[in-house]
DNA sequence: CAGCTTATGACACTGAGTGTCTTTATGGAA
DNA sequence: TTCCATAAAGACACTCAGTGTCATAAGCTG
């Protein structure tokens, strides 16, 4: 099985393609010529690789855009784990803070904005949101369940939280405000845990 | 422009294709052979029409599945308008009730369940949710704004509401409980309007 | 019947995504 | 150093979704 363990691998032909730079090339073409006017063939040629090789690193065209959002998820996970030990107000506050802090930890907000603007203006990319937000959904749900929120409530709150957060990101990207924090805070404020929320019991 | 005003149209070749029955045929094929194993060509052939004609009524393969969810949206809109004149607790309660009542007004829950099960188990169909829930999003947002909820809050609450509701529908469909109401009620309960909610002013 | 209008479909094309097989490049064993 | 196992890279061919163009069928109105 390829594409696993980039660490302990000393045999076989070495990797020559850098996915990051390929994605960067693709984003440039998308910006210059438009998303739909740029074919996978165009991208492969511009990146100096074969079309099939391109598909080996990016299973779909949308992944060239959405792939760059992984750091945001990872950043929020880091923030979540860091804050998990510390004060645990209530599960949603922790999530809210981790999303905001994760956004602040992103290396280049300009790139993030460009990416989200592209997403926000293309049917295909918007539609990928359900799938693309999967890992964010996973960690969010995990956190809520770990905090003792009943499973069903956790799933609904998770879905609501992800939906509102994505909306916030899109709105921030569409405008020109430098800081996404106010958007994320306002958006996540619409989610609540009804009745027995909090880290009280482990009612499944 | 075709496909408008199905009413006052007395000239030209009459319609012979019934989109409803075509969609029904498609759903049967999807159930029997699987969504990805059924091509648009297969559907056209089974429906006794040309492939291009099929595309005239269903722009995408996913529309053959998602198209059937329109009645649910329309039903909830009817409920919303009916209740709008009556008691207006708060904007979210009205939405909650309209969704539940809309579900109860659906003619055939078994078909709805089959459809949602198909959606819930296919990447492609799940991804279409963003686009497919657009009209539901529109009416929801409209209601909130009409109720005087600040626009930004309304958009976030709307996104959260739609996300939670969709999750509820998927979970109901995956199980065997006859009534979706409890799912919808529990899901929509996680959304709230922070601070100055309610039909007090018309702050834009 | 003539002509207008609209539904249907035949044909051809682009491009996404996939499977198979070949080639290339490296580290390690003989 | 030579050969071999291993894995990256790409060439090739294919399926199918979705689109555009154009021809034809079938009603209605005059």
TrEMBL record, chains A, B:
Residues 39-58 bind DNA. PANTHER family: HTH-TYPE TRANSCRIPTIONAL REGULATOR BETI, HTH-TYPE TRANSCRIPTIONAL REGULATOR RUTR. InterPro entries: Homeodomain-like_sf, HTH-type_TetR-like_transc_reg, HTH_TetR. Keywords: DNA-binding, Transcription, Transcription regulation. This is TetR family transcriptional regulator. Pfam families: TetR_N (PF00440). One of its GO terms (molecular function) is transcription cis-regulatory region binding. Residues 16-76 form the HTH tetR-type domain. It comes from the Bacteria.
């Amino acid at each position: 099985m390829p594409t696993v363990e980039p660490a302990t691998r000393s045999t076989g032909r070495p990797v020559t393609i850098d996915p990051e730079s390929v994605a960067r090339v693709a984003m440039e073409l998308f910006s210059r010529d438009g998303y739909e006017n740029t074919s996978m063939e165009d991208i492969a040629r511009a990146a100096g690789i074969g079309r099939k090789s391109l598909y080996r690193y990016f299973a779909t065209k949308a992944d060239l855009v959405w792939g760059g959002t992984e750091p945001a998820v990872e950043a929020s996970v880091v923030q979540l784990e860091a804050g998990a030990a510390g004060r645990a107000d209530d599960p949603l506050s922790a999530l809210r803070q981790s999303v905001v802090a994760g956004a602040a930890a992103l290396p280049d907000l300009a790139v993030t904005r460009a990416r989200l603007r592209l997403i926000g203006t293309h049917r295909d990319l918007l539609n990928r949101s359900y799938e693309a937000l999967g890992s964010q959904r996973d960690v969010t749900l995990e956190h809520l369940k770990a905090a003792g929120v009943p499973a069903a409530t956790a799933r609904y709150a998770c879905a609501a939280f992800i939906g509102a957060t994505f909306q916030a990101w899109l709105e921030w990207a569409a405008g020109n405000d430098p800081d996404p924090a106010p958007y994320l805070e306002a958006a996540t404020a619409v989610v609540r845990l009804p009745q027995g929320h909090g880290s009280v019991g482990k009612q499944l």
